[in-house]
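We were asked to recover a plausible sequence for a given structure. The inputs and outputs are reproduced exactly as logged, with field labels preserved.

PROBLEM: sequence recovery
POSITIONS: 96
GIVEN STRUCTURE:
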């Protein structure tokens, strides 16, 4: 997988396909809301397993039933396709 940093136009185009994600800085971010803490933690466990499998680890903020994921590719110095691939996988995990 290419670790080429995406341009602002490329990021905007990819964010259009993931409307619940945003770009607050040199990262993409989404907050997921769950029924309760236990459901939120199950999601975090699934995200952790996926992160280990693909060797790409998001920053995770847990606030009771809300989980915020922040993604950037540090080796590339910004946002890459790898971050968007992970975002799509996280969205799928949240629907399980």
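RECOVERED SEQUENCE:
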């Amino acid at each position: 997988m290419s670790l080429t940093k995406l341009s602002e136009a490329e990021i905007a185009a990819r964010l259009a396909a993931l409307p619940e994600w945003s770009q607050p800085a040199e990262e993409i971010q989404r907050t997921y809301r769950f029924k309760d803490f236990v459901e939120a933690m199950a999601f975090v466990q699934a995200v952790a397993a996926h992160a280990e499998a693909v060797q790409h680890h998001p920053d995770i903020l847990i606030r009771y039933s809300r989980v915020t994921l922040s993604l950037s590719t540090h080796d590339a110095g910004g946002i890459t396709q790898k971050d968007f691939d992970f975002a799509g996988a996280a969205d799928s995990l949240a629907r399980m």
